[in-house]
Every structure is written in structure tokens, then in C-alpha cells.
Write a structure and sequence with these properties.
Layout (H helix, E strand, L loop, with lengths): L6 E2 L10 E2 L6 H9 L4 H7 L5 H14 L13
Antiparallel strand pairs: 1-2
Helix pairs in contact: 1-3
């Protein structure tokens, strides 16, 4: 994925879910930890293989996914 060099996808790791640098740490885990009140600094202490930039990029990636736009269908149904 362009612009997200820390986000990786591998079918052999967590079934191909978005992970951090090929580790078994998913983007969704990091987003969930932040959503439940942990700071990036606390997450890095809890998961010492992570770097602050890993957490930041996971949040940026998740934010980019929420930019998806839905356009209603126009015209008569098929």
C-alpha cells in the first residue's frame, strides 16, 4: 500500500489482516488500544517491539479507510 511502509499484509500472518511490519500485531489491535485510552507511549511500553511511528501509522491507515464514500444508486432498479 502506497504511503504506509509499516503496514503489511501476509496471508500467513493473522490471515492477511493489516499488521505492523510483518509482526503478529494487527492495525486493529493498536486502534482498539488507543480507542480504549492507551497512549502511543503506553502501547510501546506494553509491546516493546513496536515503535511510536508504528502506532501513528496504524492510526493514519485506519483514518484513511474511513474516508471511503458511498454514493447512492440512481435510476430504476434492475
Amino acid at each position: 500500500m502506497v504511503g504506509y511502509d509499516r503496514i503489511t499484509f501476509d496471508p500467513q500472518i493473522l490471515g492477511g489482516r493489516a499488521c505492523i511490519r510483518g509482526m503478529r500485531l494487527s492495525v486493529s489491535l493498536l486502534v482498539n488500544l488507543v480507542a480504549h485510552g492507551m497512549t502511543a507511549e503506553q502501547i510501546v511500553i506494553e509491546y516493546p517491539t513496536l515503535e511510536i511511528d508504528d502506532v501513528r501509522q496504524a492510526l493514519q491507515y485506519a483514518a484513511a479507510l474511513t474516508n471511503e464514500e458511498i454514493y447512492p444508486l440512481t435510476g430504476s432498479p434492475l
